[in-house]
Amino acid sequence: MTETEVLVVGGGPAGVISALTASKLGRKVILIDAKPYEEIGNKVCGDALNLAPATFLEEKLGLEKPHGEEVADYVEYLIFKTVKADFPIRGDGYVLNRHPFGQRLLKTAEDYGVEVRPETKAIKAITGTDVVKGAVVQDKKTKQTYEILARITIDCSGRNFQIRKTLPKDGFPLLEKTMEKRDVAVSYREIIKLKGEDHPYRNKIFLIYREEIPEPGYFWVFTKGSKRLNVGIGWFLEPRLRGMKERFWEVLHKYYYPPGSYEVEDKGGYTIPTRYPMTNAVVSGFLTAGDAAFHVNPLSAEGHGPALTAGYYAGKAASEAIEANDVSEKQLWRYNVDIMKHFGLSHTKVQLFTAALRRIKVSGVEFLLKRKILNQEQFIDLHAGKELGFFDKLKIGIKSFPRYDILLQVNKIVKGAQFFEKLFAEYPDNPDAYPTWQSQFDTKMEEIRGNQ
Ligand SMILES: Cc1cc2nc3c(=O)[nH]c(=O)nc-3n(C[C@H](O)[C@H](O)[C@H](O)COP(=O)(O)OP(=O)(O)OC[C@H]3O[C@@H](n4cnc5c(N)ncnc54)[C@H](O)[C@@H]3O)c2cc1C
């Protein structure tokens, strides 16, 4: 048995930043990961990271932004591409080499005093009455199982959400303990090196909507320097579709690079929990961040930046709770408030766009744009869940619009966004008021999603 103040499960971006933050703020932290030390931070990914979370971490923790070998390319534009049109938006960021970046964060966490236990797998939560007290873990080398008792446990185990899902079913009623299939995206990607000329996609990342790929899934082409590309495909797990790799190769070979014109340097597939964030991610003695808490953009499936950001808030909330000698749900609730403010509302609004796109399909979006019912900025605002000032104008525009299915979906986004803006402005500052708020949220969200 081991005792610590903070136990972090998972050394991906959410876990490493949670651990680093709590340790920097003076806490005794153990971080466990099922992987060997050298593999922590490595992951099959599109590798794109916005500048904003990197700047956030620099401001909050003094962490240097990605640099040197960690950066495969700098990004200036994100381009939404359909067959007939391109919609570029300015979007500063990086395409990373995730492994060295993750390893740097891990080593920095150690420099701040975090004890890293690699090849240590969390098996299940240890709980008392209404409180999480740590985890049963297994040393993968010796196969020995033992307990790590912690005042606060932070579940950052990604799609496994190993602690959250092993909480007693009949306890902790305010916390979701499952992950529905409809909220999981599947993806496959290859990193390719071109044999011939340099590619024309430097400093750009493309999200490509095509009829070969079921909406709201997409094909992506991300630059990794002049000769390398990270190319991939992703869509939702439900309804179950076969042939992901075949469709990936079909699109890659038909529209981009034929077989033989490139070498594959790396390949792999994985799943991504892709949904609006959990509206409560705490119970007494427990927090969860990153993929384990659905901190992923519900359309683009970007989760690296939100995981880093949420990791900071989780580490801070854990540290403050221990300092106050109060690890109750009420004390930790501040974490929920921070997440809801930072990206909770915007990701919820993106979920509306995702639901609409699934119904009107790519052809519907193209129709809206071709008829100038929606301009590029408005399309992007819809996608990003940003301000909705343009909707009044939009409403006038769509009055004469003959495609009533599209009209209906746009109206749903408008009304839904207005509803959630109001609801999030009233997000409770303590758990007592949460059930009423949650019931309003869930009812509206189900109405919008329907059977999706
Ligand atoms: C193919 C693909 C492409 C993607 N492209 C992008 C992109 O371009 N941009 C972007 O922002 N996001 C992208 N994402 C999403 C992004 O990778 C994740 O959102 C992000 O890594 C989440 O970080 P995390 O720390 O929550 O989880 P993870 O990075 O998954 O880390 C979880 C960690 O927990 C460990 N772990 C799991 N179970 C246990 C256990 N039981 N015990 C101990 N340790 C455990 C794992 O070993 C791992 O190290 C992509 C994902 C995929 C699959």
Inertia-based shape: globular
Tell me the major beta sheet.
Answer: 8 strands, mixed
Distance between the termini: 44 Å
> What average pLDDT do the residues reach?
91
Number of helices: 11
Total count of strands: 16
- In the CATH scheme, the class of the largest domain would be Alpha Beta
CATH topology of the largest domain: FAD/NAD(P)-binding domain
Bound compounds, each kind once, are:
flavin-adenine dinucleotide
Radius of gyration over C-alpha positions, nearest whole angstrom: 22 Å
CATH architecture of the largest domain: 3-Layer(bba) Sandwich
CATH superfamily of the largest domain: FAD/NAD(P)-binding domain
Structural class by SSE content: alpha/beta
Q: Assign a percent range to the helix content.
A: 25-40%
Tally of individual domains: 3
Proportion of residues in extended strands: 25-35%
What is the element string, with H for helices and E for strands? EHEEHEEHEEEEEEEEHEEEHHHHHHH
